[in-house]
Amino acid sequence: MRPQKSVIGLIGAIGAGKSTVAALMGSLGGFVVDADKIGHEVLDEPAVREQLVERWGPGVLHPDGTINRRAVGAIVFADPAERKVLEAAVFPRIHGREAELFALADADPAARFIVLDAAVLVEAGRNEVCKKLVFVDAPREERLKRLIARSGWTAEELTRREAAQLPLAEKRRLADATLDNDGDPAELREAVATLLRRWRLLAPT
Description:
Blueprint: E1 7-12, H1 18-27, E2 30-34, H2 35-43, H3 46-56, H4 69-76, H5 80-107, E3 113-117, E4 132-137, H6 140-151, H7 155-163, H8 168-174, E5 177-180, H9 185-198
Parallel strand pairs: 1-3, 1-4, 2-3, 4-5
């Protein structure tokens, strides 16, 4: 069921800064639902952890017994069939948590709209709950630099992850608006505010 308040879904290139845009929208009255954070929590639910270990063995665990997301990623991004196994295990739980947060946002008088930040938003069919989609973009060199600093990725890793998602051209086509995040925070904040005003989600200045 779609929330009562407008949902803005953030899509775009890996490392383009969707979380940065989500935080900016949150500071301007949005209620941010971070699906990737939810996904990380779901991975360590006992039932999910047990299912993944049964499928792929104890090598997907850290020494402390928590899920090693990098090990899981190496498996699922190399084999679409294994990726579907992971999605079947976690997507229903993630979507259930999202629904709970949507209900909280609807009940929160301070929330003017909802922001859904999810790495595979369209691929998971979550665009159906969104009123608007925003494509966040940045040059590939800039994105790779961020990913190296943040997660130690290589160019090959970025290429492999991108190949597992909807093509960027298709995401851009589906979007209602594009935000360029090429490194100027002040310009990005103004672009976000301008977009929200255009959609009547932020009071005119």
